Amino acid sequence: MPIIRTSDRNRNESISEGLESFSIVDAALGSDALRVGELTIAPMTRVPRHAHTNTEEAMVLLEGTLEAQVGSQRMAIEAGDLVLAPAGSVHGFLNRTDTPARLLYVFPRHDPDRVWSTPPDAPPSGFPSEQGLSGFSSPHDRPLENES
Fold this sequence. Notes:
Blueprint: E1 13-16, E2 19-25, E3 35-41, E4 45-51, E5 57-63, E6 65-70, E7 73-78, E8 82-85, E9 91-95, E10 101-107, E11 115-116
Antiparallel strand pairs: 1-2, 2-3, 3-10, 4-9, 4-11, 5-8, 5-10, 6-7, 6-9
GO molecular function: metal ion binding
Keywords: Metal-binding
Protein name: Cupin type-2 domain-containing protein
């Protein structure tokens, strides 16, 4: 098993505006199945609601504060909190703060699928508190507008 220095990894794998991800462990680094990465979520940016039908996902908030949703459960999480999204469960995050948040994610397989929970023709609906997390249909989501 190799020893991997995260400082040597490319941290510039931008998913979309406000979201940057980089792989820490994957097949290219010698893992038989495990995939581990880090996601940085900019202020006033969301990770759109989505599901992985072929695997579960564990996420640990390393830094910052986020609003998290898994299924119908929604709550604020802080550094050190863990979110477990069972296979097929819709989940997403929102950073309403003025500082970036860092999230470590772990999949027990190399090839997690991703199914967005918002239809492609749906208008951007923001992130209204009474409706919980919402997202768009593609990974090219815009940062959130400021809400009152």
